[in-house]
Amino acid sequence: MADFLTRHTKDPAQKKLDTARGRGAYEGFRRALAMSRQEVVAEIDASGLRGRGGAGFPTGRKWSFIHAKEGQSVYLLCNADESEPGTFKDHHLMTFDPHLVLEGVAVGAYAIGAHRAYIYLRGEYASIAETLAAALREATAAGIIGQSCLGSGYDLSVGLQLGAGAYICGEETGLIQSLEGKRAYPRVRPPFPAVHGFLREPTVVNNVETLACAARIMAEGAEAFARLGTRQSAGTKLISVSGAVERPGVYEVEMGYPLMQFLSHEAGGISGGRRLKAIIPGGTSVPVLTAEEAAPLTIDYESMLSAGTMLGSGGMIVFGDGTSMPHALLRIAEFYAHESCGECTPCREGTGWMAWVLRRLLAGEGRPGDLGLLLRVGDNIEGRTICGLGDASVQPVRSFIRKFRQEFEALAPLPVAFPAWQLHGHGPRTGRFGPPVEEAAQSQPVEGPPDYVL
Amino acid sequence: MLTSEGLEEIEATRAEEPSARHALLTALRVTQRERHKVGPEEIEYIAGLLGLSPAIVEGVARFYDQITASPTGQHIVRVCGGITCYLSQSDRVAQDLKGFLGIADGEETSPDGEFTVRLVECIGDCDHAPAGMLDDRFVGPLDERALRTISER
Amino acid sequence: MPIVTIDGRQIEVEPGTSVIQAADQLGVEIPRFCYHPDLEPEGNCRMCLVEVDGFPKPVVACATPVVDGMVVKTPHTSPVASRAVRGVLEFLLVNHPIDCPICDKAGECSLQDFYMHPDYGQHRSHVDSKEKVHKAKRVDLGPRIVLDAERCVMCSRCVRFSENVTGYAELQFIRRGNHVELVSFEEQALQDPYAGNFADICPVGALLSRDFRFKRRVWKLDYTSSICAGCSTGCNLRIDHYDGHIERLIPRRNPDVNRSWLCDEGRLSYKQLAMAPRVTHPHQDGEKALWVKVTAAADELLRAGTLGKGLPLAALASASATNETLWLFRRYVEAAFPRHLLEFRLAQETEAVRERQDKLLRRIDKHPNTMGALHLGYTAGMGLEGLVREAEAGRLGALLMLYYPPLVGEESEETKDRIRRLLELAQESVLLTTHHLPYLAGAKILLPVAAWSEEEGTYTNYQGTVQHANGAVGSPSAARPAAEVLGDLMRQATYGRPETEPGRVFAEIAEKVPAFRGLRYKELASRLATAYPPEGRMPYGKDGFTGH
Amino acid sequence: MAKTASRVIDVRAEAERKSAGLRSTTGTLAGLEVTLRNMVRPQHVTIQYPEQRKAYSRRFRGVHVLTLREDGSLKCTACYLCETVCPAQCISIDAKDVDDPRIEKAPSRYEIDLARCIFCGFCVEACPEEALIMSREYDLAVTARDPETLTYGIEDFTERPQIAFYGAGFRPHPEYPLVESYVPGERDGTPER
After folding, report:
1. What is the pLDDT of residue D166?
2. How far apart, in whole angstroms, are the C-alpha atoms of residue D67 and residue D182?
3. What are the pLDDT digits (tens) for B28-38?
């Protein structure tokens, strides 16, 4: 159990500016303001902070992509559209420590030279928006945010925007479109938001937790953060665990914390004395792990990658013995079919088709070859869509069918006509997950990755 | 059509943002909150208010789940249908809740127009599975006590 | 400038060019729905996926800018890209009704062409009709467009056109996922004066032209390149005709003039040709006459009225005539009648030529060739009004008039009155025209000429661009191109043996008129080879079709 | 082995055997066999047309028939495929809207110039709806040469009494029984002219 971010979240009084400031809130922002922008970016870069929304892209590098031309405004958008099923860490953070989030926004905005920042919350978080708005009023009244923040001469205004119920708004370009009052259709990249983002100006979209980390890093120094965690995954991670565990909730753990230990200690073990059947480690958009696969893993980016999955948003969903995986998969597939924005063809038609086939299998109306059809449809979606939602919808389908094949075959009418390679894959898949982490860290990025796993 | 409070909220957003279109989402939220629906007349009203074509307003309004074309009740109960809550049988919970509130099968709104119960996608409160919301408040887990609290309201 | 290799062929392109533009320049066909050369790229259809060396997965050609040394493989040569495109096509067919036999777009439908393509075609649709998502069919969107939402592939071309090009923003998508549906708010009729373009830019049969609907299967049509004669913009268009009847007009792409668009007035201008009965035979004093006799009579009449009495000839030409006709008209008048008033019909046209009606294409001046007339030496002079005054004062000996009724709108009552009056007052009048109109009844000799779409020639638009139009259909009965009639008139009194074939007349103009110097008729005519979309591709069995 | 060998025919010996004996007589009689047989057969080769008519094959390609839906409307969707495929270019169609929103269009005019028709049946094969089939009607003699006489329209193709008299001919699925109501006038009757 670590407390880099959540040291004070247990105390309801932390929402009050006075209490929070007494505990060091906005000291990180004050320190950042004393530094140049480049120094702040360098500090974050040195800390090894990676995006906490899901993709895990180094935050310092993302900020360094911003090169505003003369006359351009820069925008920071804080992605609080936490819609990934099984993820509620930002919910927790914003509810219990809104000033930390605001400080993170201020630090991020200062680092990229933005004078306007938005926090985009999903529509369901209206009550949290009130908390944040109250905190923002306090901070503005105290001269922390607004004209000449903390007397530094740096101006920043923060806007709050509530969504209205669309998962795709968590995708960074979808978020930008939604903020601009359009249908949240993700934009095709290039150009990346760092060049053409909100209002076609350079824009950075960061997750709530990322920005909170940035604030704490500025307060405690890069060294304090980099000391935590593993070499590739610095710092701590908020894990929101739910499903078949005794104590579901949000826990902060140091990167590299053993997964099984987390489940048995923090999460209180599998509920009802059952055995672990499977675990989705980072929101439904990442491949599922069987109990055997999960056993040796630790909670960090590289360990998850070695098992062919991702840490993602840290939204762990635990399945106990006796859970029907096909039913669970259908629910997940229906989620993606419902939330696909319908902009690009493969995702629009493919997600609906996969859900349709699964529904028919579970209704006992499956046709021979349906499992193969599911996998093939998945292959046709993956890597062909504008944003990550298409890829994300494929991961559960493919991993559930491969790893819990018997349960699906019991539904599918014989013969199950699909070739063995479809079941077992060609070996380690590249594509979505890219090269192994070590290589990725050394190679130059060709694109600014999305902040949010979709 | 809208209360002065709602209009003020839209106006404030519009003043803050670079163009009228940026206030569209806020306008839709406010309208939904006050009118409990955003149907054709509301769309034309918003279009007039913001100087947009009704088609654009309709396109955006029909994109979001929380903006509804048909009227909802005074209070809306969202039962989470996300994977975690689904595994805690939230679909049955929704059924039970509808029973409590006297909402007929296949309907979403109670006959007195007081409550709408809707099974929605993940609402981000999975540790309280089966999670639910009463208007903007999280009220999970939806155990028997929570259901009674809601229905007695 | 970056050099890119596409399917083994190299091309040097401007920086910032996208892969699909480079491929279009090379003539390599990349399938596409959402990309349109005159709209912002959106990248949503995923049909233009190509394999690029060094990229881990296929990329969309429409949104990927060319980088120097880039090696691109299209679905024609790359199995990776072909597989990707097949996958996308399979998805597109999931919820498409595949009702090609009763769809008016069949034959010029991109989806149909693509799914039958040997390199990346995909016929499979595993989905029963009852499993498909059903949407609104046969939605009436006003007088121009009928919508079938089930056929829509959600490429958003129409949405972008309506939002970004005309600004009416009347079409939008609603809902999400595979329930996304194209709608007009409350099924309201489209107000857009460019609504007809929706049917052209729609790659499938979702938005259909109400005018052309059910009229003719497209593979029956013959195509002729022409220029719109509805106003002085001179939009490039294609006349689609069958069996001597014009079935529709659709725009041809010309980035300098009309891009890919055509206004609804221009699109329906062919219907104006049927506004009144056509003049089918030469008439003398209200009686049908023979060309051989009537030509001589006309020349005789004009000369008797002017040379005999020492009065000038009023020669009134129309700015709707081709450059060649106007040139011969002027030559005849100048050669035969030493005293003449060579008039350009409406004085105000010379001012109106630069005036706009809207921001996109439509202009106030409804004559396609005002600028050409000005270049050919016609000046405003006294105008129609002045001629009427002269006639009233008895200072006109005879009248030679070339008149084409407007194809967009109607003459003002005032103008009609003046024409009627002029024909009444001028005792000796020869009128070359196309239609029997009430205000033209006073002419002594009536010579039927070919209308627009029936004769070949060039028009000069308001920008001064000389453009070539082909004759598409035949003239009724004895009507002949005005240039030929004028040539005959000149031969009557051996004022010369002029060339009347448009190409030769044009060569003469190019030689003598500064504004036309250096232009070559053949080059103008061959520019018309570029056809509307996708460039160069035409339905089955027609020239330039690259599939199958 | 022996059995197999015994089946071998010695061609030369066989020929010699056949050529021996009463070769000329039997040869003549064999040649006359068919003639002689027909000489004593009781049937007539010709029939008393038009009082008598031959029954033609179920696949006979006679004058066309437009089939109907159960509600009596034309099945034809005016897709123009028959017009497109027609090698004689004798079909011409105009389409119109219909009230039923599920149906895109229907023909307002459907004409075949039977004087030009070569009865190849391509139109029937092209029809995706089995809306156009052929009857076994074959006698089309007319006394006037004006083009109207042999240009049949929708009414002729659905209501003329000859359809009932001759019955259905060439159609894409002869194995399926014809639903009576689909084929107008597929009943007993005599042709009227």
Report:
1. 84
2. 5
3. 999 999 999 99
Nearest CA in chain B to A337: B121
CB atoms within 10 A of CB C518: 7
Q: Which residues of B touch C184 (CB under 8 A)?
A: 55
| pLDDT at residue A421, as a whole number | 42
Per-domain residue ranges of chain A: 12-227, 238-320, 325-442
Chains D and A in direct contact, meaning 3 or more beta-carbon pairs closer than 8 angstroms = no
ipTM of the assembly?
0.86
Q: How far is C28 from chain A (nearest CA, A)?
A: 22
Secondary-structure class of domain A12-227 per CATH: alpha beta
Range D64-182: architecture per CATH: 2-Layer Sandwich (3.30)
- Cβ–Cβ below 8 Å for A345 and C49: no
pLDDT reading at C544 higher than 90 = no
What is the per-residue pLDDT for A453?
28
Q: Are D125 and D150 in contact (CB under 8 A)?
A: no
Q: Do chains C and B touch (3 or more CB pairs under 8 A)?
A: yes
Minimum-distance CB partner of C87 among A190, A348, A380: A380
A451 pLDDT exceeds 60? no
pLDDT tens digits for range A65-112: 998 888 899 999 999 999 999 999 999 999 999 999 999 999 999 999
CATH 1.10.630.10 fits B75-152, yes or no: no
* Residue C80 contacts A, CB cutoff 8 Å: no
In chain B, what residues touch A88 (CB-CB under 8 Å)? 124-127
Give chain C's largest Cα–Cα span.
88
Whether B121 sits inside 8 A of A167 (CB atoms) is yes
Q: Tell me the residue ranges of DSSP E strands in C129-282.
A: 139-141, 145-147, 171-174, 181-184, 207-209, 222-227, 236-242, 245-251
A161 touches chain B (CB under 8 A): yes
Number of domains in chain C: 3
C142 in the same domain as C12: no
Q: Under 8 Å CB-to-CB from A191, ≥6 apart: which residues?
A: none
Residues of B in contact with A315 (CB under 8 A): 126
Using alpha carbons, select from A308, A316, A311 the residue that is nearest to residue A279: A316
pLDDT of residue D180: 57
Cβ pair A448, A194 in contact under 8 A:
yes
Average pLDDT over residues B61-83: 93
Contact B125/A at CB under 8 A: yes
pLDDT of residue D8: 72
Predicted local confidence at residue D182, as pLDDT = 60
Indicate the domain borders of chain B: 4-61, 75-152
Chain C's closest residue to B53, CA to CA, is C169
The one-character DSSP state at A265 is I
* A268/A277 Cα distance (integer angstroms): 16
Higher pLDDT, A267 or A418: A267
Distance from CA of A174 to the nearest CA of C (A): 13
Residue type at A77 in one-letter notation: L
What CATH class does B4-61 carry? mainly alpha
Confidence (pTM): 0.88
What is the least distance, in Å, from the CA of C253 to any CA of chain A? 26
A397 contact B CB<8A: no
Alpha helices in C337-381 (DSSP H): 349-352, 370-375
Partner A contacted by B36 (CB < 8 A): no
C308 shares a domain with C256: no
Per the structure block, which two tokens stand in for A143?
A: 């001269």
Sole residue written with tokens 């909170």: A212
Distance (Å) from the C-alpha of residue D147 to the closest C-alpha of chain C?
19
Q: Is C2 exposed, middle or buried (0-12, 13-18, 19+ CB in 10 A)?
A: middle
pLDDT for A177: 95
Rounded mean pLDDT, C171-184: 94
What local confidence, expressed as pLDDT, does residue D147 receive? 77
Is residue C258 scored above 70 in pLDDT?
Answer: yes
> How do residues C306-344 score in pLDDT, each as one tens digit?
888 889 999 999 889 999 999 999 999 988 888 888 877
